[in-house]
Amino acid sequence: MLATLKGLFGNDYDEDGFRTCSVTGLRIHRSAEVHVKLFGLTAVIALVIGGIFALTVAATRWEVLGLVGEFDGYYRHLSMHAWNILIFWMVFMEIAILYVGGPMVLGRRLPLTSVAKAGWGLMVAGALGINYFIWTLSGGSDAPLLTAYVPLDVPPGFYASALVFLVGATVAALPFLVTIWQEKRGNWSATLPLVTFGAFVTFIIAVQAILGGLAAFSYALIWQIGIIDSINTGIYRQLYWIIGHGSQQINLLAMITVWYFLTHVVGGAVVVSEKVSRTAFIMYLFFINLGAAHHLMVDPGLSVGWRIFNTSYAFYGAALASMIHAFAIPAGLEAGRRQRGLGGGLFGWLTSAPWKNPIFASTIFSIILFGFLGGISGVLMGQLQLNMTWHNTFATVGHFHATVALGTTLAFMGLVFFVIKTMFRRNLISDRLALVVPYGYAAAMGLASLLMMYVGILYGVPRRTSEVVSNIPGSDFSLSAAEPLFLVLGPMTILAILVGVVFVLVAVGSLLLGSRAGEDDDEALLPEGGLQPNGGTESVHAIEMRGTFTLCLMFMATFVLMYILNWFLLTRLWSIGA
Amino acid sequence: MTNPLDPPEGNWWDQAVNRREALWLGIAGVWSLGIFGWMSGFTRFGDQNPVGETFEVEPAEFEEMLESYRMDADWTSEAAIEERRAPEENEQVPRTGRLREEGQEDIDGQGTVIVPPGDSVYIMGRQFNWGGLPVVLEAGREYDIHLGARDVQHGFSVRPGDSLSQQINLQIFPDTEWVVPMTFEDADTYHVICNEFCGEGHAGMHGEFYVVEPDEYDTVVGE
Questions:
Q1: By the 8 A CB rule, do B128 and B151 touch?
Q2: B154 bridge partner residues
Q3: Which residue range forms the structural domain that includes residue B174?
Q4: Fewer C-beta neighbours within 10 Å, C or N terminus of chain B?
Q5: Helix (H, G, I), strand (E, B) or coil at A293
Q6: Chain A: nearest CA to B82, how far in angstroms?
Q7: What is the pLDDT of residue A325?
Q8: B153 vs A233: CB contact, 8 Å cut-off?
């Protein structure tokens, strides 16, 4: 057992502890690689725990099964699902991504490895504490769900554990910051590689989010242990959503960084304009965390001006940034592949792409579904008035499954396969099963997300409840008109979870039983002609981007259509508001 | 063109942007400003805005306000409302919920449905029912809906029984009173459920508005 574990963390390094990656050509130091593996493996464990509770939650919301009743702990199950998947799986992966984007891409050691380990230890301790306090709730205490809204009676130990986890994440991120400082010291005018730059912006966004989280959970903690007598609901919500939404922006930025990275390595993408892509990252830096206000649109006590400015990320600065990446990333793929002469016509560059490579397929499905389902729905529900029809309905759940479960999780699954091949140097135990993951997950979770939005908007099915569709306890009223849709939604959520099981089996199975990957195996991973093809120095003007442009126009048409549809529904309502 | 794993060489800032990418930037920029303008303008010309006066209030104070409003109110019964509704309409109205309001037993035979004494309607979320519901309202008349909570946060989620897609959701705080004006155009039974988690029992929070036509309203309230 110990030998197996030790074997997982080994590789052939030279005297200085470096090796050259045969896929990316990066010079990788042992210290960075070991810690990427450590955080990545921990993330997968969190995914497994959260995934188990995904199953019990899904089997409850599909009321035909009605697995866990309201008084049998449904809200505990929901809390476990949320914290383990949305927070622990994501944040452990994100620390790993920082270590890839920083020391690995820059060819440096990971500095302060003991700090990295201490950060990991604190994060694990915080995560264990949160799981413990959720699972052992008793004596009339309330389940926290994700938000731990005051003044519910959430155990103080929960808030304390959340603080420990956040401090741990900050500590774990420090070695990344030191790496950037070391790189830039004495060389301030040099430009960072785009992936490192993206990781750096992710880091800053993360710090902003964590500060909000520390404030929110400390405020709730000192109230729960009696240091202050009363707590203000609205202030807690404002503080909480700095981390509640901000942590999702960490996911977004980490995911976009991974998109640039993986489309390049497995698809042959280039950066079509450093200026445009970097400007988009800078716009995120300034605007994206204003989006925390999305959660406060139908709260009392906030002025209209405050709400409109913040929910729009200051005139949609961050939405524009996302639409820039939405062009730049596929355009990079199109330009890179056209340069290599791969595929003519409008979409030949895309149809000729390595669709049988699970890493490539995961990345592309993540990009497309995040944009069409998650991105569009996010802007719609973030509009002040439309939010009245989205807020706390199942449609909200549909939105964040489209962004986080489809977008981020799918991209991270691709990344895990990539890490298994390039860092653990193992072949996948079954390429066919691995390929089931992107296709099966994209289809099942895509359909599930769409249906969640559908039942939320058109049938008003709420989130965060154990039953309401077939039965509202103590009432003759119900939302049973939505029942037929659950006959598709229910099985789709369960199917998506089963594909998640396949992912874990392939990932863990390959680590334990996969054959050792050699240089011959790398060929299949890389784009045709290798990562750095000869020639291909044509100017950006000589390369056509009409395929991407067409795709983006299709995206815009969908966006406009959905926008009109949502507003049409809203204006059919009775008159509301001063 | 460069790759994302190496620092770009030379003056990358001044390199021209591809024509189609520049065009897309323009389209996306115009759309961003457009949807901002629409959202902002709609607060001026639109009829559906989550906007109203708010007041800081202790939960106990709000409960007192609700109580004194109930003292001033008249009462009618579910049966009286159903009876006055036109027969064809009656068939469409879903069966209404069991009344579970505490302190709202039909003691003197006047009924359990509140008839608001004026244009103000008080509704208070509490674990686990809606104080101030059921209430009968007149179609087409503007009411000030005073929303508050006694204990924790609740979600005020409303839809007419005949058309589930017409639904709105507002957040309710225990330390804030939110006065949101509403005018219900269509007579129907509107169902309120709680859509913010408020503890075990949350799933059963249900209450009703009965919105009736003006001529029926007079009969129902006994004028």
A1: no
A2: B172
A3: 54-220
A4: C
A5: helix
A6: 16
A7: 98
A8: yes
The answer to whether residue B4 is domain-embedded is: no
pLDDT in tens, B146-165: 999 999 999 999 999 999 99
Interface subset of A 547-576, CB within 8 angstroms of B:
548-549, 552, 556, 559-560, 563, 567, 569-576
Estimate the crossing angle of helix A274-287 against helix A313-339, to 10 degrees: 150
Give me the residues of A, 116-145, that contact B with CB < 8 A. Answer: 142-143, 145
3-state secondary structure of A110: coil
Domain count, chain B: 2
pLDDT of residue A537: 55
CB A484 within 8 A of CB A458: no
pLDDT of A1 > 60? The answer is: yes
Q: Which helix (H) or strand (E) holds A502?
A: helix A483-513
**Confidence grade of residue B103 (pLDDT, cut at 50, 70, 90):** very low
**Within-domain flag for B77:** yes
Residues B41 and B115 in one domain: no
For chain A, domains (ranges, CATH) are 34-532+539-571 (1.20.210.10)
Backbone torsions φ then ψ of B188, nearest 5 degrees? -175, 170
Inform me whether the C-beta atom of residue B150 falls under 8 Å from chain A C-beta atoms. Answer: no
The CA distances from residue A111 to A116, A175, A573, B150, in Å, are 9, 6, 58, 53
Taking the whole predicted model, whether its pTM rises above 0.90 is answered as: yes
- Residue A452: count other Cβ atoms within 10 Å of its Cβ: 28
Please tell me whether the interface predicted TM-score (ipTM) of this complex is above 0.85. yes
